[in-house]
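Translate sequence into structure tokens.
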Amino acid sequence: MVKVVLLLFFLGGCASQFSPPEEYVAVSPDTGLSCSLDIWSGAGGAVGLRHTVFLEIREEHRVLQGLMLVDRDRGQIRIAGLTEMGMKLFDLSVREQELESHYLSSALGERREPLAQLVASSVRRIFLYSRPASEAKVYMGPHSVLVHSSFQGEPVLQECTQADGRLTQVSCPRENWQVDYTEYQDIDGMTLPGRIIYNDERAGFRLVLVLHEVQEK
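Result follows.
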């Protein structure tokens, strides 16, 4: 089903041309059949995350440790990446339109600036996805809800479970990226995706984030 939805989305291109699968019907956003995008907001403040990152770049495989402070109210994320042995590789502040590099290790070589940009781009798409715009279209299907909207000027499609509005996927076929939120579980008193898979076919890499710890700040 998801592949069919993505194919139709890709063929549709812009928001005015999008056509959902035939088993999905348009509903008013006021019905409440939408996606919950505040899974990182905690109790209305910032949330600290500790996770392991499995990075695949073509034939290369790396394992990193990540520390992150997600502040959705301010639209900002502070993220630090470390090796498995604890050596810091980067320390960044990411906003929807801005990137500030606090530290980039020389161990990253000449690619450290482009790497920082890739990290920032993936972090925005995974954690800083904005609420659907006012012109968002909502469609209800047999088991899920689709929300067609835009993010950073590009058409995006969200998919949520119909029962509880739990976000399961955000994708942008035009830019060839997709985020899957899976294995929802209770982590330190919050219901969060225990595993997040980010594929960026245009940039040629894949991330798998495994969440270990959450702290409300």
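Note: The radius of gyration is 17 Å.
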